[in-house]
TrEMBL record:
PROSITE patterns: ABC_TM1. The chain crosses the membrane at residues 21-44, 82-103, 112-135, 164-190, 211-236, 269-292. It holds the Pfam family BPD_transp_1. This is Sugar ABC transporter permease.
Length: 301
């Protein structure tokens, strides 16, 4: 009897394992075909010279990476990208946190306000960029009209003639699109905090700022780390906004735009592959800091 029940338990466990493999294997195959294989292929091709304008694909080792570090356009694109990342992460975090705190306090009509907040994120990035292109237009743009109406400028301004203004305006468009995602993540973290903690703190005489510093911030730290991670990754991969608003201008060119120009405009595929790998590595290294932060905050000793 005991042996029979043991065999049934063994068969049940074996069936569960087989069912689990049946679900996991398709995912592994799809991820391998769409991620792992292209990544390995890119890594291999980045150490060869692949250029339709030159016959053959000789092995050049790290020559492509050396050429990238020597290229002033690549260096400028890295500087621009770090500008974007720093500004976007700061603005998205502050704006998303403020929006989440406001939505968390609203009791009536929250769903409609949340839908309005999420709308820019739901729209395609190209649509958002085109809308803002009209706003920034020096002839009939809304921004020039507002600045002239309040007396800040006397004549229309071409904003993208100044590099730093252009970088900031492109960042604003990206933040406008991605801040709702940060707000939703932080709103979910805020709603997970028990209300009893705030009531107990108020009984002890804690004010609003002290409650925010000692209760809210520590308890949303993991959600904040996730929001920072996604903000960093998306800012590193910024392409649509910068390309539509200012094209291939070196003043606002990102690493991803530079990769696109190497691979699809200059036909230097190996340089494009090498630069894309460096961009991926930089994004992963910075995101790793946030992942480690989440791990430390959520680990139970």
């Amino acid at each position: 009897m005991i042996a029979s029940s043991s065999q049934q338990g063994s068969r049940r466990r074996r069936g569960e394992v087989e069912l689990g493999l049946a679900f996991v294997i398709p995912v592994i195959v799809i991820m391998g075909g769409l991620v792992v294989v292209p990544l390995l292929s890119t890594m291999i091709d980045s150490v060869y010279r692949i250029n339709p304008m030159h016959p053959g694909t000789p092995f050049v080792g790290l020559g492509n990476y050396v050429d990238l570090f020597r290229d002033p356009a690549v260096r400028q694109s890295w500087i621009n990208t770090f500008y974007y990342v720093v500004m976007a992460v700061i603005l998205e975090t502050l704006g998303g946190l403020g929006t989440a705190l406001l939505l968390n306090r609203i009791r009536y009509g929250r769903r409609w306000l949340l839908a309005a907040v999420v709308l820019p994120w739901c729209l395609p990035p190209v649509v958002n960029a085109v809308v803002w292109l009209w706003i920034y237009n020096p002839s009939y743009g809304l921004l020039n009209g507002i600045l002239q109406s309040v007396g800040l400028i006397s004549a229309p301004v071409v904003f993208f003639n100044n590099r730093y203004v252009a970088l900031f305006l492109v960042t604003i468009v990206h933040v406008w699109r991605m801040m709702p995602l940060t707000a939703v993540i932080l709103l979910a973290a805020l709603q997970s905090i028990p209300g009893e903690l705030y009531q107990a703190a108020k009984l002890d005489g804690a004010g609003a700022f002290k409650c925010f510093r000692l209760i809210t911030m520590p308890l949303i730290a993991s959600g904040l780390a996730i929001a920072l991670s996604q903000s960093t990754v998306f800012a590193f991969n910024l392409f649509d906004e910068a390309w539509i608003l200012s094209g291939a201008s070196l003043d606002t060119r990102t690493v991803i735009i530079q990769t696109y120009m190497f691979a699809f405009q200059n036909m230097k595929f190996s340089l494009g592959m090498a630069l894309s790998l460096l961009a991926m590595l930089a994004s992963l290294l910075i995101s790793l800091l946030y992942v480690l932060k989440v791990y430390r905050e959520t680990r139970f000793d």
